[in-house]
Amino acid sequence: MEIKVVANVLAANDMIAEENRRILRAAGAYAINLVSSPGSGKTTLLERTVATLSTEIPLAVIEGDITTSLDAERIRRQGGRAVQINTAGDCHLEARQVREALAQLDLAGLRLLVIENVGNLVCPAGYDLGEDAKVVLVSVTEGDDKPLKYPHVFVESKALIINKLDLLPYCDCDLAALKSSALRINPKLEVFPVSCRSGEGLENWYGWLRDQVAQRRKPS
Amino acid sequence: MEIKVVANVLAANDMIAEENRRILRAAGAYAINLVSSPGSGKTTLLERTVATLSTEIPLAVIEGDITTSLDAERIRRQGGRAVQINTAGDCHLEARQVREALAQLDLAGLRLLVIENVGNLVCPAGYDLGEDAKVVLVSVTEGDDKPLKYPHVFVESKALIINKLDLLPYCDCDLAALKSSALRINPKLEVFPVSCRSGEGLENWYGWLRDQVAQRRKPS
To answer: What is the complex's ipTM, to 2 decimals?
Structure first.
């Protein structure tokens, strides 16, 4: 009984996710679902990304949090468009919540949508929101064993951002081991070591985003 | 339908949790359910705790992970008794898994049991495992807004460990703000700022553990 209900919930989610995907593709927008633990630096990455790219790429952010609108406010302070979703206790976003947020956004001319998921390295991995790519973010302060211990989200993602490089000299984190264990789990991962604090490595991330957006514009 | 099934699952969990609690109290053991995000330092805290306290307090650790037995191996290298639970995808431990782990432990003479939950600041907050106290751990590298954004686990916990104090000079984390927002959510929280790397502050944590264990020994 329990299993059947969960399967039904997932099937309903996938149906709405496909609808979201159709809406976003029709608008010409590339969509990212950004996943990490709490405090790995998702919002800081988006603050910098919005500040750097929003003049050249029309973009918007959907912020998923259990409670508060702190993150949407941070994005707006960088001049970005942001819609806040509060899950009221739920540990991940679902496609229906993203659909409600899409209804609040003017999609005309939108080229990039970033959905910042609830801080959780586990549950968001199982939910399609209608994105083109999941992007997983870890920070070097979390150690180098996260891909081994939480493999699902690394399997599901197209890119891995390794944040807080500025703290690497003070941490017991083997960056090469972190990268190679992630790539063993998913050899297709694009890997971007960055420091959202110093800016190191962010140009590579911006370049990848520009490429994804440019490819979406081409007729397929 | 979905809600009713979830309610049934939680009720079944609570029943088994009460049984675990009865078993542990009968044995005279104090039990902690340690919760944090991935990479905040739960296992490192337990490595140091086991190395320091295991000669004076008979203790054991139940390690909860989605996959791998890396954490149980780390505890055993410190001379601790450890049972590994793999949740095979699940984002939190449930009471039935702890009951199975208890069956693998010799409880005679046990005085302290620490259950290290799956790395997740959200879902474990809702599941009683039969512990005497939840203890939540955050690290200063995660920023100072975690109590505001993930309040449930702070409400449910008796103690808050703030780890990675050694990295505080390199982080944008306001330690006073972190403490005060946690205490606004739960004024009864015992707060232990520590560095599991340098050892700073750990004596206060060990002292609190000794007190809890000593109080359990007294006839109630």
So the answer is: 0.92
